[in-house]
Amino acid sequence: MYDHPVCGQxxxxxxxxxDVQCAARRTDWxxxxxxxxxxxxxxxxxxxxxxxxxxxQHRGQESAGIAVWHPxxxxxxxxxxxxxxxxxxxxxxxxxxxxxxxxxxRYSTTGSSxxxxxxxxxxxxxxxxxxxxxxxxxxxxxxxxxxxxxxxxEMAGISDTAVMVALLSRSSADTLEEAIIEMMGIIKGAxxxxxxxxxxxxxxxxxxxxxxxxxxxxxGDHWVIAxxxxxxHTIGADFIREVEPGEMIVIDKDGLSxxxxxxxxxxxxxxxxxxxxxxPDSHIYGxxxxxxxxxxxxxxxxxxxxxxxxxxxxxxSGIPHAMGYAExxxxxxxxxxxxxxxxxxxxxxxxxxxxxxxxxxxLAPLKEAVRGKRLIVVDDSIVRGTTxxxxxxxxxxxxxxxxxxxxxxxxxxxxCFYGVDTSAGRSELIAARMSVEEIRQxxxxxxxxxxxxxxxxxxxxxxxxxxxxxxxxxQYPIPxxxxxxxxxxxxxxxxxxxxxxxxxxS
Length: 506
Ligand code: SF4
Hints:
30% helix; alpha+beta; 2 domains; disordered N terminus; Glutamine Phosphoribosylpyrophosphate, subunit 1, domain 1; Rossmann fold
């Protein structure tokens, strides 16, 4: 049970017109999350979903939820704030019995971190009850929300997912499938969805396939849907194929049926999934995320060589990149940081204060390994630059002689509108305000090089036209409404107060 921090209302605050405009009613337009679904009558579907979500925990750590359909007890669910193991107990999992289930792990992008936004979310249409779990970010959610509120009744939440729930609930279609097809003609943006309805699960992917979504087979006769293939492997399912962009997959007692709802114009999978977001043991487009990251390191070593004694990663996401770099550079690879493995990804923490505190809690320099050495420090990306500066300062304090920073993607200069929390506004993106040389000075590195776009694409091994690369080159595959762009285009002329507090370059 959650007590409202301002007015003391319990979880599920019914006061949707609350004047306080507390976290429960603040906007939350989209998430980069993990979704999972399973159709397996006779199996422990809640437990399978729990393990699936556990494998997808890197995609979201703020909340987790599972909804289960049971022929007698109908739809049951449990959701809460925190990691999967904090949200679900053995007793809760045992209470969630059924034939099919969906689950969700979430981190907020622009919204509040609150139980109110935890998923799955629920609705009821002409065709009966349903639950939705969403990964992505709609670009016309604000506009649709305004229209829906004008039409009334007042919506219970303000989020992309709440908009989708309202569209489906208010549809005059006779089946959920028809309502989804109708909705896909209205919503715009990035969405990989799993839905739960009586005796079926449904998976849907936007026409560009921005966020990953795949289909697996469990024990030969059950079906699984997951954001990433790593979740299939965790529960012992075999990968069958990806959900195609624009496709709707329905899984029920008659098996799997696929419908091409939207004609894919061009695929635009988020390249950031390959650089950072997806788990390294996952495959997207049939490409190994881990091997792609190693190749990024190989190509960066060719593109930006430097003499040094040791290549170290910023753990853990920089590890495959650094190994690749060291292999081609023929420089020893080693650890320079010890990571506290029980700290969450700082990138995902919902506010700046927690992000900055997170650096020191997460990493400690290995003095014996770095003292007196010329280091090549390899990381996957620099978003705000607020964690990289302190990391370099830690290595300096530990006695590193030189620090050469190598980043495995181009400078991130533009905001993401499709569900990755690269920034609340462009002013937070360090590369939107500074040149590479200014960033180097600001962070205190002896040299700084970014992987260029040509090598990034070469590392993944597919034509650029398969990817969204908008945060690097401003080429948004799905048109972004002007008002949304304006909200993220607040380029600050000078350093923010937060960055002024960063350690000065030595
Ligand atoms: Fe991914 Fe960047 Fe495109 Fe967002 S803008 S979907 S982070 S490549």
